[in-house]
Amino acid sequence: MAVELEVKGYYQLAKQLDELEAKAGQRVVAGIMSRATTPLKAAWRAKAPVRRSKNLKKTYKGRYVAPGFLKRSITSKRVTRKLRKAVALVVAGVADEAFYGPQFLDDGKTVTGRRPRGKGQIRKAVKPYTLPAYDWYFSTYKANLPGMVKRIAAEMEKEIGRI
Predict the structure, then answer these.
(1) The whole model's pTM is what?
(2) Regarding predicted confidence, which is higher, 75 or 116?
(3) Residue 143 contacts by C-beta under 8 Å, 6 or more apart in sequence?
(4) In sequence order, what are the residues at sequence separation of 6 or more whose Cβ sits closer than 8 angstroms to the Cβ of residue 162?
(5) Bigger pLDDT: 14 or 31?
(6) Beta 74-79 vs 89-94: how paired, if at all?
């Protein structure tokens, strides 16, 4: 999905950020990106499915989690890499332990059975089941993408005024 971004004064901002220390420029751009993803995270939290059972479940790391774990796991983080000046990468999504949200719950999943893992191993039989698709992750992202781009442009224009 291609989205064009047109910001008045972007080149002036980029030049001024390049004049700043590299870390400071990255911090400014990462802050702009983080603020732009805030409404997306709020929309994801509002639409995220919550398990109805009151029982605790174990994650693959062995932690016990209560219902609503997927909703609480929605986050964004700044990824620091040795990029050129005034470039930052912000990743929004779910924490690693909540991988099942976008992977299984968004598209749905059908489990028909299990195979033994290795030679001579016996696994517990599982009745076939289907997780219904609950369209919450990618559709919300697509709906919020134009707004995020506009927020990035607006935040950059504000930052140009400050510098």
Answers:
(1) 0.70
(2) 75
(3) 43
(4) none
(5) 31
(6) antiparallel
d(CA 55, CA 152) in angstroms, rounded, equals 41
Instruction: Return the structure tokens found at 159.
Output: 């930052």
Distances (CA, A) of 87 to 76, 114, 136: 17, 46, 30
- Give φ, ψ of 76 to 5 degrees: -135, 150
Per-residue pLDDT tens over the stretch 55-89: 888 888 888 888 888 889 998 888 766 666 656 77
Q: What is the 3-state secondary structure (H, E, C) of 98-131?
A: HCHHHHHHCCCEEECCCCCCCCCCCCCCCCCEEE
Considering Cα of 77, then 80, then 81, then 87, what sign does the dihedral take?
Answer: positive
CA distance 144 to 150: 10
Residue 102 — pLDDT band, cuts 50, 70, 90?
confident
